[in-house]
């Protein structure tokens, strides 16, 4: 068995796409309408994808607080400067729990925690 994708409901597809394309660096793989008022976008160019679903009829999104998505970055310090320049607040960190990894957290436009990780 292999993991295919992770899905989140989003409040605003365009705002979410700007975040995942501009900040995280993911590319749109597929974008399509899935019925009246429902749009789906798959992001990522590897084996595993992220699926964003926007339902115009149900804008209430409850992400929760105990889940996060992690993305690898070249440099935590450079990425922190980059996200701050884009007006995005650092939620917590940076942390370095061992000599091999550093990371920090931001939130996506829907409140999902995003962990940006540097493998040292």
UniProtKB/TrEMBL annotation:
Residues 2-119 form the VOC domain. InterPro entries: Fosfomycin_Res_Enzymes, Glyas_Bleomycin-R_OHBP_Dase, Glyas_Fos-R_dOase_dom, VOC_core. GO terms for molecular function: lyase activity. The keyword Lyase applies. Keywords: Lyase. PANTHER family: GLYOXALASE_BLEOMYCIN RESISTANCE PROTEIN_DIOXYGENASE, LYASE, PUTATIVE-RELATED-RELATED. This is Lactoylglutathione lyase. It comes from Parasporobacterium paucivorans DSM 15970.
């Amino acid at each position: 068995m292999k993991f295919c994708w992770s899905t989140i409901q989003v409040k605003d597809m365009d705002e979410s796409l700007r975040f995942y394309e501009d900040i995280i660096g993911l590319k749109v793989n597929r974008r399509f309408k899935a019925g009246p008022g429902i749009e789906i976008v798959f992001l990522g160019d590897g084996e595993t994808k992220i699926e964003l679903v926007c339902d115009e009829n149900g804008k209430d999104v409850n992400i929760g607080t105990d889940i996060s998505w992690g993305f690898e970055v070249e440099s935590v310090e450079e990425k922190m400067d980059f996200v701050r320049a884009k007006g995005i607040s650092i939620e917590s960190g940076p942390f370095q729990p061992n000599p091999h990894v550093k990371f920090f957290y931001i939130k996506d436009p829907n409140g999902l925690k995003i962990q940006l990780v540097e493998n040292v």
